[in-house]
Write a structure and sequence with these properties.
Blueprint lengths: L1 E5 L4 H12 L5 E6 L12 E5 L6 H7 L6 E4 L5 H4 L2 H21 L4 E5 L11 H15 L4 E5 L4 E2 L8 H13 L5 H4 L2 E2 H16 L7 E4 L1 H11 L1
Parallel strand pairs: 1-2, 1-4, 2-3, 4-5, 5-6, 6-9, 7-8
């Protein structure tokens, strides 16, 4: 099985790479990042592509003839990091969608998208609305299987700040994990999201998924992660 991973230097994406590297079922891994990742040359089955201008990523996927069985994306940003609502949508929706479309056109059969708890195209909130619109439009691309993961507060060490809101959510998530309060934020370790993402990827290629579209919310994501640990 071959995989293509977008957002591989992020909190969840880097964990997806780690799990993929350790999986004997995965024979090749391709990543596309803005900068040289820490894991470059960490595995003989890993190929890293670099382009600082992410608006060119979809064309790189096409021109490099990157054809993988599974397309996984944990790519994303925040309004604070993007600088404006317009830039946020251009990055979080635009780059994600164009890259997924290119992967589909290149023959990827399964798509695993790491989205967010509360994603809804009808939401009045920019972040949730954009995530929901992205989900809807990626589903319309028509992969054999589209798996959408909606984690709650992500736990783990980030290399880059994603803004005060994310920092607060992560701190509270750490405090509430294992308590009755965890039902509010549904905290989950990024490494566990990585495990679930790769598990779904393998099941999709192996013909073990019955549904064409699978959306996994925070509670179910935690349960699935626990079953894999």
């Amino acid at each position: 099985m071959s995989t293509f991973i977008l957002g591989a230097t992020g909190l969840v994406g880097s964990q997806i790479v780690k799990v993929a590297e350790s999986s004997p079922a995965i024979k090749s891994i391709t990543t596309l990042t803005r900068r040289t990742p820490d894991f470059a040359n960490s595995s003989s089955k890993l190929k890293t592509l670099e382009e600082s201008d992410s608006s060119k990523w979809s064309e790189i996927i096409k021109s490099q003839a990157v054809s993988s069985d599974v397309y996984l994306s944990a790519f994303g940003t925040t309004r604070a990091k993007a600088g404006s609502a317009e830039n946020f949508k251009k990055i979080d929706y635009g780059i994600n969608y164009s890259s997924a479309k290119a992967a589909k056109e290149n023959g990827s059969k399964v798509c695993v998208l790491v989205s967010s708890m509360g994603a809804n195209a009808s939401s009045p909130f920019l972040y949730m609305k954009t995530k929901g619109e992205l989900e809807d439009d990626i589903i319309k691309l028509g992969f054999d299987h589209t798996v959408i993961l909606r984690p709650g507060a992500l736990l783990g060490e980030r290399k880059e700040s994603h803004g005060l809101g994310n920092s607060i959510a992560q701190t509270i998530g750490n405090w509430t994990k294992g308590t009755w309060l965890q039902g509010l934020l549904k905290p989950i370790d990024a490494s566990d999201v990585g495990k679930v993402a790769i598990d779904f990827a393998q099941k999709g290629i192996n013909g073990e998924l019955k549904d064409k579209v699978i959306i996994v919310g925070g509670d179910d994501l935690v349960k699935l992660a626990n079953s894999l640990n």
